[in-house]
Amino acid sequence: MNEANGKKKGFFSRFFSNDKSEDASNGKEYENAFVTIDYPLENEIVKGLHYGVRLGASKDGSVEISINDEEWKPCRFGSGYWWFDWGYFKPGDYKLSARIISPSGEVIVTSKERHCKVC
After folding, report:
1. CB atoms < 10 A from the CB of 21, how many?
2. Chain mean pLDDT for the chain
3. Chain Cα centroid distance, residue 111
4. Contact in structure between 110 and 18 (CB atoms under 8 Å)
5. Structural element, H or E, at residue 20
6. Contact between 24 and 72 (Cβ < 8 Å)
7. Mean pLDDT of 60-66
8. Could you give the CA distance from residue 61 to residue 45 in angstroms, rounded to a whole number?
9. Tell me, what DSSP letter sits at residue 11?
10. Tell me, what DSSP letter sits at residue 88?
């Protein structure tokens, strides 16, 4: 939950969620929800034609990713992580954000932004 509202966030949410994120639930159902972008690392240089973005998240819903504030795209779950198969990108600077969506379509929590560069 948002600490500004007098409600405490869960351990992982305090460290991995974006300060401007909002929890969708009024109750305690999602208070420990978290999502974080594991790879690419902050300011990592990405090379090649394809990159597997790895995300860590609580099991509170499905995960989506946005690159450079464009539309949210679904991620897939496998081997204990969420993944986004990123390809056909152009050289430049990129900003990635992830979020968890509840089964009813509400945004539960949003990650901190992650920046990387494609060469």
Report:
1. 21
2. 83
3. 4
4. yes
5. none
6. no
7. 96
8. 30
9. H
10. S
Tell me: cis bond preceding 40? Omega within 30 of 0 counts.
yes
Distance CA 119, CA 113 (A): 20
How far is Cα 86 from Cα 89, in angstroms, rounded to an integer?
7
Question: Which burial class, exposed, middle or buried, applies to 63 when counting CB atoms under 10 A from its CB (0-12, 13-18, 19+)?
Answer: buried
In the chain the domains, ranked by start, together with CATH numbers, are: 3-118 (2.60.40.10)
Q: Which residues contact 116 (CB under 8 A, 6 or more apart)?
A: 40, 41, 42, 43, 44, 45, 46, 93, 94, 96
Gap between the Cα atoms of 9 and 76, Å rounded: 26
* pTM of structure: 0.75
- Yes or no: say if 16 and 34 are a contact pair by the CB < 8 Å rule: yes
Contact 40, 46 (CB under 8 A): yes
Residues, the chain: 119
The answer, yes or no, to whether residue 77 has pLDDT greater than 50, is: yes
